[in-house]
Amino acid sequence: MANKTDMKYLKKQRNIWFYARVLPKKYRPYFINKKTGQPITTFKKTTECELLDDAIFERDIINIKLNVLFKEIDNNSSNIISGKAQTNLQKLIEYRKVQVSSLSSDSSRDGAGEMVSNTYDEIIEKAQDLFIPQVSTKEFERVSATKHGWDKERGIIKLDKSGKAKQFLDESLGRTFNSYVDEYIKHKTLWGDSEKKTRAYRLIINTFSKTMTLDKLNKKAVKQWAINRVIEQGYQPDTVITEAQFLNKYLEYLADELEIKWANIKSPFKLKTEHFPAYKKNKSAKDRQAWSMEDMKLVYQADTPQVINKPELKNLIALGMIYGCRIEEFLQLTIANIVYEENIRCIYIDKSKTDGYHPFGQRYLPIVDCLNPIIERMIEDKQQEDYLITTASSPKQSRSALIGGSFIRHIKELGYERPKNLNFGGKPQQAKDFHSYRKTVNTNLLGLGLITSQRNSICGWGTAFNNKQMAETAYLQNKMAYPLVQRKEHLELWASQFTFSF
What we know:
Helix content is about 55%, strand content about 5%. The chain has 21 helices and eight strands.
């Protein structure tokens, strides 16, 4: 006679064995009755077997498939759970704003406080339904009991073996470091910070939050995080100190503006250079190596997955090889930057990465003949305000960062490595990246006899100026001293050195 284990999930109807399994509550929304449109509580499927042994075999197969489906739902539901947590947190933030606002009346503050308490209870109930739906009331009460009463939150976290309940509760209740990053970005934008700057704030806050829980947020832990960022990830100490200043401003905002309790601590983010081990200043420009002609041919002609997925990458490489501009300069160009100046077709660089130092770092770059077909393809069917190089962007990364990352992956496919951090010693590297085209063009133009001021007129200013007037004067003087017709002759001479065609 079959035992209970053999009969698990099996029921016989009209001489046929059926598989029948009660679904955990968290999976029911994914199983809908086609007739009623409502979630089902029990999953049923015929084994098409009359004999029990055959039914057991089919039962095991159905069970395996269903368990696999549960795992897929769990993997996909992590984003859904985070979405629910963000919705919960947003409600709490709105109520807390009323609580801390100097413009709120006493009754409004009291009402908001009551709503905060009610929302907390709702979040606890949601967590209980999501993560421990099958736990009996008696068992839940047992693990939730404390000397001072009931701690339902502790009970949920203790009974949930996946660890997702704690994550959901922390995210819902604002107990992760980056819980209020969206509010902070809105605040910084309101006070006039640029999209580029707020993107940097968001990135470092989210990056820090991934490695630091609130219970470990102290000066010692932050120092160790900073040292690891320098030694293991290759950042300059000065860069990490600036990042820590961003984090400190965010912490001050949480404590002063939103009055978040966990943020009301002595700041652990006040780092100094002496907090880092002895290091050498990373002269990354000197460590970069110029591309050889064979290198450039391989990088330009190879069709890696990155080039296939982003054909615009090849156009960017062609421009980089000829002009040696910074990637940010190419990516900010629009169709309107293709102009005629002194009857010569040019690319007009109207701003550069170093504009913060000298607003007039502009220059005209005559378009060499071999690039004209590429330029024509790039401007086809576009409006004046459209970007010359059309590529993707995201809220978290700029267009230049995204396509720059594609370039790095492209050259890695070909066996090249980008320059790594040399702060703590190491041998000189033969590493290259997109900025290496700048060194390549400079080196080759020097070999063709161009003086420093002429090379700077093509690749960009080599020196920052003290003020706008000095920069503008130098720009105009250089334009007269180095006419565009002469620039085009020199660039055509450089283009003629290439052993492959574009």
